[in-house]
Each structure stands twice: as C-alpha cells, then as structure tokens.
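anyone seen this seq b4? input:
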Amino acid sequence: MKTFIPKVEAAGKKWYILDLKGITLGRAAIEVANILRGKNKPIFTPHLDTGDFVIAINASQMLVSGGKQKQKLYYHFSGYPGGLKVTPYERMMQSKPSKVFSLAVRGMLPSGRLGRKQLKKLHVYADERHPHQAQKPEVWKIAES
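predicted toks r here
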C-alpha cells in the first residue's frame, strides 16, 4: 500500500464569495478556515495547501453573540515596556471591520508557514464592492442555526 499525496496545482483552486451580512462572527470564521485549509475536499492533506480562495464581503455587518459587543477586546503588544494597546470590539468594528474577521480566521488556522500562506488566500471587504469579479467566484452559503 502506498500513501496518496495529492498534486497541488494553482489551476485547481476555486474562488468562493461569502456574504457576512447578519452572520455570526465565529460561525463564519470556522467555515472560512475550513475552506482555506481544504477540509471541504476529499484530497485534504494536513501538511499541504489544498484549500481555495475566499472573498468575504459586508464585514461591517457581522454579528457577535452575547455581551461580546461591549466586552470583547483586541490586544497588540509592540514589544517595548508600556507598549500594550487594547482596542474594544466596537471601536475596531468602526475603524477596521475587515481586520476583525481576518483575526478571527487567523486564530483558526495553523500557526507557522503553512497558516500564513493559507491566510493570504482570504480577501475581506467591509462593504459589497470587491475587485475579484474576473475570478468568477461561487457563492458559499452558511447554514445559520
């Protein structure tokens, strides 16, 4: 018996578009992380990049459950003494809604070279406009329960 190792080709990659309007942040991030990793394909291999590209639109209209609207915080440390910056979720959504979604997906991808490569296939936009019409993306629906 021999182990099957798939050939990863750029031509075999698909593009998906996901509308985040009214979708919960965590549920959408799980779906997108699975597409980026390739877990929705039968040829999924943990150490190879078999995933597809994702365009996420309407990031400014995502939802969070519970009291996270007021309590969730984002931390950034510069590495210097006193260099810890804390940003509340509400302010982050006003200034950089696409970064909120990217950080959520980044936390669900592997850390290291492969995870960074997979994250580059994610394109997040705050509104409906995006420059990827030429790729003819398929619409990806999330089942909201």
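The beta strands are 15-19, 53-57, 73-77, 84-88, 122-124, 138-139. The CA atoms of residues 62 and 99 lie 12 Å apart. kinda curious what u guys think
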